[in-house]
Design goal:
By secondary structure, the protein is α/β, with parallel strands linked by helices. The strands form two sheets. The chain has a six-stranded mixed sheet, covered by helices on one side. A two-stranded antiparallel sheet has the order 1-2. Strand 3 (about 75-80), helix 3 and strand 4 (about 100-105) form a beta-alpha-beta unit. The protein is about 25% helix and about 20% strand.
Length: about 220
């Protein structure tokens, strides 16, 4: 969590964490996060695009927020960076009610998938998909109370652009929940970068912390 928070939240990459999907061009997955969502979240995936797949950081972040932080998210404007299929933001949208508002953002090629998944779930919380490319300007209407980012650390040349976008979106009172699985040593360079711009605190209230403590997921 940034206020923001990063913590080693290790994760075992099993079907319990990332449900398997059929190898066809697109498939729909049902996820209830160990009973935290009823009815479950429905997501159409697109394995042909990086952003259209389920990733460990998203599963960890969504389950943590659903289990531990719903009271803190009530009545907040929430924005998710690199939302992909909408895993984290849509999971929250099924639990939060008005006047909360959720913006799901990603590249132009991913936004149609986001819109499809919003329609698939019909969330009670107002939820919209937007194009937001890192490094560009963000409309002031986007300025959130809560910023979410899951598995956005995967391409080192994009680190400065991601950081720039976070700096534009975050005000002193904004809280960011940032979660990623470390796949290469360069990933930790991003952690060093954000420590220069934000107050970084470790998440310490995750009951699954020890379960995932060996797999290099950071939250």
């Amino acid at each position: 969590m940034l206020n923001t928070a990063i913590k080693e939240l290790p994760l075992s990459i099993t079907e319990d964490l990332v449900p398997s999907t059929a190898p066809n061009p697109s498939s729909t997955t049902s996820i209830d996060f160990s009973g935290l969502l009823n009815p479950p979240l429905l997501l159409q995936n697109d394995p042909t695009q990086c952003g259209g797949q389920l990733w460990p950081g998203g599963m960890v972040l969504a389950k943590y927020l659903l289990r531990c932080k719903m009271a803190d998210l009530k009545d907040k404007t929430i924005l998710e960076l690199g939302a992909g299929s909408g895993l984290v933001g849509l999971a929250l949208s099924l639990q939060l009610l008005r006047p909360s508002y959720i913006h799901l953002t990603d590249l132009p090629t991913i936004v149609p998938l986001l819109n499809h998944n919003i329609a698939l779930n019909s969330p009670a919380t107002p939820t919209t998909a937007h194009i937001l490319e890192w490094g560009g300007s963000a409309p002031r209407v986007f300025l959130p109370d809560i910023l979410l980012a899951a598995d956005c650390v995967y391409f080192e040349p994009a680190f400065p652009l991601l950081l720039q976008t976070m700096q534009v979106l975050m005000r002193p009172e904004t809280v960011c929940y940032f979660c990623f699985k470390k796949r290469r040593s360069a990933d930790m360079r991003f952690v060093k970068m954000i420590r220069k711009s934000f107050e970084v605190k470790a998440v310490q209230d995750d009951p699954d912390d020890k379960v995932w403590g060996r797999e290099g997921v950071h939250l």
